[in-house]
Amino acid sequence: MHVLLVDDDEDLRRLFEKLLGARGHDVTACCDAESAWVAYQRDRHPLVLLDWQLPGIDGLELCRRIRAMPEGAHSVIVMITARDQPDDVHAVLQAGANDYVAKPVPPALLKVRLTIAEELVRDRAQRRLAEAGRPSEARPEAPRTVRFAGEASFEDLVGASPAINLVYQKIRDVAKADVTVLIEGETGTGKELVARAIHACSRRADHPFIAVNCAGLTESLLGSQLFGHRRGAFTGASESQQGFFEAASGGTIFLDEIGDIPGPVQTALLRVLQEKEVTRIGETSPRKVDVRVLAATHHNLSQDVVAGRFRADLLYRLRVARIQLPPLRERREDIPLLVASFLVPCRGATGQGVRDVSNQAMHRLTEYQWPGNVRELKSAIESAAVYCRGGVLETADLPPEIAQADGPPSLSGTSSGDERERIIAALAEANGNRTVAARLLGVSRATFYRRLADFDILSNL
Amino acid sequence: MTSGANGAPRGKIIIHGDPDLQELIPGFLENRRKDVATLIAAVEQGDFKTIQTLGHRMKGDGGGYGFDGLSAIGLALEQAAHERNHAAVRIRIDELSSYLSRVEVVYEAS
Q1: To probe the interface with B, which of A8, A15, A100 has the most B CB atoms within 10 Å?
Q2: How does pLDDT run across A370-395, given as a tens digit for each residue?
Q3: How many domains does chain B have?
Q4: Pairwise CA distance, residues A377 & A354, whole Å
Q5: What does B56-92 look like in DSSP terms, one character per residue?
Q6: What are the tens digits of pLDDT across the range A58-69?
Q7: A338-373: per-residue pLDDT in tens?
Q8: In-domain check, residue B83
Q9: Which of A179, A397, B41, B47 could pair covalently with A320 via S-S, beta carbons 3.0-4.6 A apart?
C-alpha cells in the first residue's frame, strides 16, 4: 500500500517508516504539508498519516485540501497529534479525518490503529471496485467527505466496527436536534459515554452535564434530588436546595436506569418534559428549566408499559430519538482496539508496563461472551495487568472465567427474544440486505443465515 | 515496555524495548542526549520557544519508542517553557539528563 506520512519530527518519521515498512507498505515521508500536498496530488495515496502541528500549512488544513479533491474522498486519513486539547477530536473529524491518534502512542496501540486503517483502505478499495462494476446510472456519487465512515473512536467511545460506527453516526444526528433521546443497551455497553458524547457534540456543550443513576433510590430521595426541595419540606430538610434539573440549567441531564424510577416520580418527570418546569418538593410554584433530557435503560420499556410498570406517555416523551448500543459480543472486531486503549492507563495504575497481549490471550478475549460488555473487558484487562509478569499479557494473567471459557455458543448470549429483535432491527437498518445486516451485528453471513432460519424470521416478515 | 527495578542494579531504569524498533532506539536516545545540550543553551538564552518545541516533540516521541518517562519529562518541559519558568525548566533538564544516563534497554522476542 502506498502511504503518505507527514511529520516534522525526524525521529517520529523514522519510527513510522520502520513500522509501516515492516508491514510491507511503500512510504512517502514528508516533513511539511506543502511537500506532502505536492506528493498527494501526484500519487493520491490511499492512506495518509498526518501530524497536526507542522511548519507552514498545518495538518488540519492539508486534510481539508485532500478532502476537497474529488479523489481525496477515497483516502483514509489518520491524524496523529500531541496537542492534547479538549476540542481536538471534534476539529479533526470536522476536517474530514477518519481517525485521531493522540501522541504519545505506545507501539502496541499504534500497530492496532494501523491495522484498522489498513482494513478501512481495503474496504474502500473493494467498495469502489463493486461500484465500478455497476451500471453507470445505478452508481452512487462518490462522497465529498468521508468523515462519518469507519472511525476508530468518537469522544470516549472506542471501536471501528460497522456496528459502533452506526452509533457514532446516530450520536451526531441526535446531537444536532435538541430532542430527548433514549439510549438502550445491556449493562456495560457504554450508555453514559454515549450520553456524554451527545452532550459534547450539542449546542449545550458549554453548559453542565449531570448524570443521575435512578436505580435503587427511594421515591422521596429521588424526587428531592431531581427536583429540589424547600427548607422544612421534610424531616432533615434544613436548607432549601435546588435539584439536578435546576443545576443542569442550559445543559443536559442524563437519567440512567430510567426504567427503575417509581411511579410518582414518573409523573413528575412527565410534567418536566411537557411543561419544561420543575416544582421543588414543598413548594407550589413551578420554576422554568431549560434542560435537555437523555435517558438510558437496560430494560425493555415497551414490555414494562404492557406490564403496567412504566407510563406509556412518559415512554413516548423519552423516546423521541433512540440509540441502541450493540453488546460487545456483536462487535468482537473492536476488542483488540479496546484492549489496546485499556492497556495504556494500566501502566500507571499497576506500576508495571504492559506493552502487548499474546496471540493466545487475544484469542481468548475475542472468543469470550462478555456478558458485562466493555465494562467487564476493561476490568479484566486491569486485573490481568496486575498479574502480568513481563511486558506481554498472557492467557494465565486473565481472570479464570475468561482464560478457561469455551467459544461463543450462539450469535448472542442473551435471551432468544432479544436476539430475534436484534436480527429484525438489523435487517430493517440494512433495508433487508442480509450481508449488511450480518455485518451490523458483527457475525458472519453463514451464522446470520442460520439464525434467520432458527427464528423463522423471513417467513414472518 | 516496562520500566522499573525488577532485580536491576540500583538506579538503573530498565526498558523492555520493542524488538521491531531495536535498530532505531540507539539513534533515538542519542538525539535526546543532543537535546540536553540544546536545552541548556536555550535556557541560558531564555529561548523558551525552542524548549517548548523540544518538550512537545519529546512528549510525542517518547511513548512511541516505549520510553514513557521521556514523554512525561517532555510534557513537563513543554509546560515549564509555556510558563517561562526558568527554574522548572532547569529541573526538567536535570531529570532528562539523569534519565538518559540511567536508562538501559533490553529486547525480548514477543
Answers
A1: A15
A2: 999 999 999 999 888 888 887 788 89
A3: 1
A4: 16
A5: HHHHHHHHHHT-HHHHHHHHHHHHHHHTT-HHHHHHH
A6: 999 999 999 888
A7: 988 888 666 544 566 777 788 889 989 998 999 999
A8: yes
A9: A179
Which cell goes with B55? 518538550
- In contact, A59 and A6? CB cutoff 8 Å: yes
CATH topology of domain A328-403: Helicase, Ruva Protein; domain 3 (1.10.8)
Residue among A315, A316, A311, A301 at smallest CA distance from A185? A301
* Chain A contact present for B47, CB below 8 A: no
For residue B46, the enclosing domain spans 26-102
Topology, domain A161-324: Rossmann fold (3.40.50)
Nearest by CB to B64, which of A22, A110, A352? A110
Same fold, A161-324 and A416-460: no
Topology of domain A2-151 in CATH is Rossmann fold (3.40.50)
Rounded-to-integer distance, Cα A338 and Cα A114, Å: 14
Q: Is the pTM of this model over 0.80?
A: no
Check which CATH number belongs to the domain holding B71 and give it: 1.20.120.160
Residue B52 in contact with partner chain A when CB distance is under 8 A: no
Q: Looking at this predicted complex, what is its ipTM?
A: 0.84
Q: Give the model confidence (pLDDT) of A103-152 as tens digits.
A: 888 877 788 788 888 888 887 777 766 655 443 333 333 322 223 235 66
Q: A103 vs B24: CB contact, 8 Å cut-off?
A: no
Contact between A104 and B27 using a beta-carbon 8 Å cutoff:
no
